[in-house]
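User: I'll paste a sequence; please echo it back and then give the predicted structure.

Assistant: Echoing your sequence first, then the prediction.
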Amino acid sequence: MPKDAIRTDGAPDAVGPYSQGVRSAKLVFTSGQLPKPADGELITDDIARAARHCLENVQAVLESGGATMADVVKVTVFLTDMDDFAAVNSVYAEFFPEPYPARSCIEVARLPKDAPIEIEAVAVVA
């Protein structure tokens, strides 16, 4: 099955040899998005603000691939501190309509660029 790389100026460039996202048939996959505005500095001092930027980046990649947040079926959230779970949830709920996508939230020892959070998503489009 063919796949097409997704590229948008609405999210930061990839920090390695991968695409911001990929579309294959009806599936849109985002790479993990760090809390960094496309034209700014990595956010590490405020987890709610960091989560918001991760989700805005996810949204930009999805839209560039022809999907919306309403099309998301699976999200994975990586946190370096599970004590941030509630703050992330409050921001997360603003981005996804019901029925909410399936989700995993995993505490990890470290993320690229020492970010406190990274979020990736999978969407299905018609």
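Strands lie at 4-6, 21-24, 27-30, 72-79, 102-107, 117-124. The chain has a mean pLDDT of 97.
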